[in-house]
Batch of 2 targets.
Target 1
Amino acid sequence: MPNIIDTTEMVKKVLPIIYVLDTSGSMSGEKIAAVNEAMHETVDVLKDISEKNPDAQVKIAALAFSTGSRWITSENTLEDLEDFVWTDLVAGGTTDLGNAISELDKKLSRSELLKSEVGFCIPVILFLTDGHPTDSYINILKNANKNNTWFRHATKIGIAVGEDADQEALARVVGNSEAVISVHDNDTLKALIKVASITSSMVNSKSRTSSDTNNAVEIINQTMQMLPCKGVTLNKSSSSETKKTDNNSSDYTIIDLDESNW
Amino acid sequence: MTEFKPGDILKSIDGNNIKIIRFLASGGQGDVYEVEYKGERKALKWYRTFGTNKKKFYENLKNNISNGSPDKNFLWPEALTTTINNSFGYVMKLRPKEYHELSEFIIARGVKFPSFKAAIEVCLKITSAFRILHNKGYSNQDLNDGNFFINPDTGDVLICDNDNVAPNNTNMGIIGKPRYMAPEIVSGHNKVLPNTQSDRFSLAIILFIILCNNHPLEGKRWVSIPCMTPAFAEQIYGNNALFIYDENDRSNAPVDRLQPNVALRWKYMPDYIKDAFKKSFSREAILNPSKRLRETDWLKVLTRFESEIVKCDCGNEIFIHDASDTKCEKCGRIYNVKHKLKLPEYSLTIARGTWLYRCQLGSCNDTEALNPILHSVYVISNGKKVLCLKNEMGKELKAITTSGQVRMVKPNELVPVLTGIKFIVFDKEIKII
């Protein structure tokens, strides 16, 4: 009989948490400092959570967008938290959200970012912006939703920073106005990034209720419960928006059981 | 981000003070604090979410508290708080520091079972606790790897997170944790609710994980799934679930390189343990909840398994096959089985520390299954080590000596292990051979 002391960890699927962060000029100063500080702390916390999580191995990626977009983390693989150190972002330039989505469309693929022997849990993508998109993103978004199975199925959450953030655009990107949180001060922004990351990392370990809707709403609800209420609101402001927005993932109800689509 | 700070005082519904000492941890449903309650250190679970119906949830907790804990192994709710800011919590015992969560054994970094014997003891304690819970008319409904605190050295288990426990077929809104839900719940799309039978499927998953450190439904098919969407999850964990050792369909067999624990261990498992798992995860048991193994079925095979593990002189554990001489896999030495007990259904190896329980003698009442009958111990007699069987029944036991004389063995009295001695227990004859 093999020695039980030689037991190794049970193999886990990988849970990608992908940060898509606005680093345009309007983010400069305290806002980008808050994001950087939050990300330093988040990486440490996620590392600890991932080690203790028996259901999923958390890995991260980060894409910054301003004039164009660039990967802060490796372009070819998700980052293992074990030895990852956050590099501070610098803000400046425009808000090319469409460029960021196009980059996601390109990299969310099994031959690019999503390489794994054991497969993945549904990726979580956190979009953070304080402004309005400066490029045309709508068609790019439509294409990503249509052609990229990973993007379409991903749990997408929007963080709207300050009064000027285009909540409607964020709601459109994440596909659901209920999956957008607005935040109005930097301390809360810091807390929000951290808490939303923690709840995202544990979404697969939470017991389900018979009234559960979808992962994004579950993450948002739990994040809201864990945050101090001051300075953060759920986006229910845009009355012209339907709950499910145009171009959202629910337009594509194909159940992808065909592995070649991934 | 926490609701309370040290020194805050809450009230239980029966008017006692609950003083916050410190914040301990945050979980999916709420936060846990160390508190002082009636002069003792306790834990307080404070909710952020309550399933689907807060009032029903609160009333159920209140009932569970007034009914009391089914068994000492449950960290059962002891007192309910009054409602504050639209929420509430309950007081329970603190987890002693030598206990670890099952998830820590799964990730296998710092905490491990010291032996298979200890792991089986844990399986027995968990199964026994659920037998008691089910016998009292409750079902857990959210049985998962977060429910257990385990002392690896003693095999003792504390069952935690009992707040969703409710009378069978009454649901509090929680339907279970992914990977641990029964197939009918996964494929039921929120319309099928958990009950005792779904608990039994989850229990079999837990037992498999403790013994093999691999999920029983996660093999080749699971590995090949690119992204665990609800649709793919239903393929793996729902009505189409396939056991990794299904005899008729090997398409979900373990991937040895990625899943070495189970690949190494399964072949050494005794046939009756393999059969119990094959039956638990058969197509029949997946589709028909009434075909699942009951706790007593598990107790029968687990008690047998536990008593058939002996320690070789080299320190390695040996799984004895059919109570006969077995070779140590590590040092190659043959472990010589000198004596065995011929039971109605099989023969049991008598070694140091062998226990015989009521359920090993054939069908019995659920509540009596784990009542001990005999326990083997070494004693020094005339300067020699003699292996004896101790009467653990708590009452007299009828023995027949090798010369055919009837002798009544008093509780705790010892009988030397000699070929030919018989015992008459519950009208069954068992014999030392």
Target 2
Amino acid sequence: MSKLDYLIKGELPAEKPIRNTAGIPIHSLLDGNYCSPDKLVYLATVTATADSMPGLKRKLLVPEVSPYLLRLAGFDREKICVEDLLFIDTETTGLSGGTGTLAFMVGLGFFAAGEFIIEHYFLTDPAGEPELVRILTEKFRQFTALVSFNGKSYDLPLLETRWIIQGADFNPRTLPHLDLLPLSRRFWGRTLPGCSLGQLEAYILHSGRNPATDVPGSKIPQLYFEYLQTREFAPLINVFYHNRFDMVSMVLLLTLISRALDKPHTLTADDRVFLPGVARLLADMGALESARVLYSACIEQGIAVSQSTRELSFLYKRCGRRAESRRLWETAVLNNKTYACIELAKLAEHREKEYRRACELTGKALAIENGLSPVNSKLVAELRHRLQRLVHKLERRRD
Amino acid sequence: MTFSQLEQILEDASLAGNITTHSVKKIESATFTKLPDSLHPVLVRALCETGIKNLYVHQREALAHIASGQHTLISTGVASGKSLCYQLPLLNQFLEAPATRALLLFPTKALGNDQKENLQKLLGASGIKGAGTMGVYDGDLPAGRREAVRNKAAFVFSNPDMLHLGILPHHTRWAGFFKNLKYVVVDEVHMYHGVFGSHFANVLRRFQRIAGIYHSNPHFIVTSATLTGGREFVEKLFEVKFATVEKNTSACGEKHFLIYNPPLVNRELGIRRPAAEESLRLARKLLRTKGQTLIFAHTRKAVELLLTELRNRVGEKGLVCGYRSGYLPHERRDIEQKLRRGEIRTVVTTNALELGIDIGGIDTVIMSGYPGSITSTKQQTGRAGRKGRRSLAIFVASGGLMDQYLVKHPEYLLDRNPEQALINPDNPYILLRHLQCAIFEKAFTEGESFGNLCAQKVREFMQLLEKIGRVHKSRQTWFWASDGYPANEISLRTAASDTYILQNAENVVGLIDRDSAFWFTHPGAVYLHNGESYQVSSLNLEKKTVSLKPFQLSYYTQAVCDTRFELMETYEHQRFREWEKFAGQLKVETRVTGFKKLKWHMRELLGREELDLPPSQLITAGCWFVLGVELVNRLRQEKLWNNDANRYGHGWEDLAASIRERDRYRCTNCGESAKNSTLHVHHKLPLRSFSSSALANRPENLISLCPVCHTAAEKQIYIQSGLAGLTYLLGRLAPFSLLCSGTDLHIFGEARSAICEDQPAVIFYDSAPGGVGLSEKLYSLLEGLFNRGLEVVSDCECRSGCPACVGPEAENGVGAKAPVAQMLKYLTAASTASDQEPA
């Protein structure tokens, strides 16, 4: 017992950790090569096929990336084809962030000759990081842009930290980057309970990740630390499966979103629920006419009618097509929609100077809102204020 | 005709008669020198515009040190223009190379904000553009605005906690900042002592290491108003060589320091008027002048009581304000501004205004009761004084032992240096935690040292961390191998805890920390805030809120608290012939069990209510020793043991009843009538001073007193018990052996201690949860501590006790010097090796 041992009283593990015993090494379990003689970085390459992806239920196609998406991510649309995209997903030693967190495995995916190739770069020891950074820098330079799921706020800042610590003269964060998470939020955020990759797989992609061979993200750091102690690779196999499936889900997501944007009519009946989301994204990107067509189609086909009506009415308002927006609001007022009452009241007050009608509409909006639970007190206060102003205007007119 | 503050007091005989000491420090004129040529012309113009055409000699000296690339300590006293000593080099550097960066660390957020505004003014005067040049980076900064500060601000105002928790563990986000970092300013450096200072020293080691990654070698500019042994201290804290500037050449007006002892209201019993009431009298007197007054009180409640009283007696309520922690930040900023603009005349405050927040010049400072340390007294006194004008500081003594001692021995207050700042950066507990942070920030290579900690030591700690699986070693390097965030495991300050929000209906009134919430805002408590009184209707432990309702003040409340020790585990134990020592883990449980309702002014007890609040628990390391039965018996025989319960003698209850009847059920001091049971019967000469209870209980030695007067009377004839004296002495000496500060280690003397079979014991325990090794270290130093104690007592020239040895003796009481000396003789004799018995 060392003379400092009293400091860690109570923190010593019950069993003495097994250290550096000859566990089954990575190369016995996973096809691949060490990147250098010191065996600190291991590269395992796999082509995503039905065989290599047990459980996968969706067919993996080469995505035709929508020009809208490319524009959204800030790419120059003329110069990019799918082979220029590098899909990326990292596995790390912690979720709390900070300079002590390593990316012990970096998964990269790309299309070559119509196939999706996944490369896993794995640190058999943290001491291999300088080498990993060097190899990946080369790799990044071969591609034009990155595709990730939540990479903008998680993977890339973390990689940037690692690159800075290794003193590299390259920063992966500066590459053009399409992050599918914020995009998915715009599509499905209002309809799904959440937009994690797992939730998207369950509700939208139906991709069939096999829970038996998967591993929850929160368990991953501990598995790696145990590997460092025991050098036993077997428990980490599922982390590779997990990462591989994340990559494939990204491709599926990109394919689906692209098709929804470019060829909404080809969507299956199941996938049409997110057409209003597509329309919204198109409108946000300035493709107002495409958005209008899509919203109208939604209303006709009975897809999220009330949401589509509302968004289309504001789209018309934005384009200055007052007659069309007014028509939609008048229908919506019959369905007791507060927003429509307010918009019509605005028109009545400011344009038509029909204060009495504006009063009635505002009164109706107040009645609707007061009947809701919970009451939106801020909105109610605004409505009261509006009503007061209108009553005042009416009285002045009488004088 | 307007009198100056001093004359107002000296000409009022009813006040002047109570002044026991009046010391005057003569005017000192400033020595000026011209602005250095190296100063950028823009800066020279800006200085001229703010009216600065010259510098004090010491300021120029500081600039020269800094310009020559030396780390510089500026310790030139309160209000000597220290801020300019760092502001000028920073701005100069910024004008010459706008890409350079500076980090400014302040011990509190309020101070950081305040100093930022000051620099902003100078920047404004220079016409330097760029709103993003300065940024405060503290816990209050919304996440969305952090990136802007990191990337754009040339001057980052922060605090050590943020450096530790937010900046260093994410240093790559600060890469650009570190690369261009030129200066680090550390203000009020005397604050970094004890455990807090030892933590900070390690944060600085981590900081230096990270700066190294970015090839930056920043210069430290360090300031303090009250620092003893300045250079030695900062060189230990920063582990670099410092140039120092200590001679103050600024103008100094005549400084008057008064010690004011409140008059006796009962000569026979030695009871004096309360310090608070006399402070009020003085403050009211001073309100007649145009000057500004600051009143320092000890507690937040004392501030509110003084404030309420003072406001009741002035016409314009806005002239008098309170200031303390718990007020909302914008309220505080508002008060500071009004003080500077002269819109407020009197502010009643806790030590919250002690540090260098800019409030402009104050004419008079009143300290209601001894602030507790010489450092604090000097800081508070230093608040008085405007450029070159006469200033006045008044210490109003309370009836407490320490205060009354200072009245008799003013030299203790006037001639002594501030307490020495002690730190121990190599405390193993603190080191172990910071090394984890350091390795999280950057892997350690074999052979790497950590500040002044040699590579061999670092290695030992790394091996320890390997054992518990926190780090992984390969290729001569230790890597962090845990998914934790080690900085979260350390709080640099032990007093960190949850904040509760005080609400009146929907409005946020103020803030309070958890432990204080139990003390001051338990259900039913009367809570005073900025002179308004409220009653607490509920305390919500889950939502961390306190609901208040306005309340007409007719009484106030005082929490009743109970502290008990519980032994969790004994780590070490050694038995000597006449005493035993232990080290182990203790649970210190403090519970607010109820509260008393007290009548405003008279402190008469109106009622008592029980409360059911969860205890606050501190599980920490402790070290204690027990006096053996034989030792105590011997002291008893020598009449040097006075910790036994008073034995009032046969028939005491009947006797007491007859005394109450004789005094017609009235307090013989204040005349307050009271029911039979609430009236105490008091021994004029203490029971302990008689050889038998029969002599002590003669009716002429007995009088009836109300509880309030009884407490006041007891203070004056207090017989310091030997055990209390020993506790006092060892409590004062221990920090010197451990290099910690007085608040890092608590000490408690118990005549019948529950943790050692009701034997008399003295208990030391770490104030930081879990302990930082102080008590454990003390366990091995105990015998040495006894020897030092004995030396101190033998060498002290006082009669029977003073603050420098076993504690002050009461005005008519008896000090504990003799019993303590005897106890220590027995303890030291009994701990020689030959007397040892196996445990």
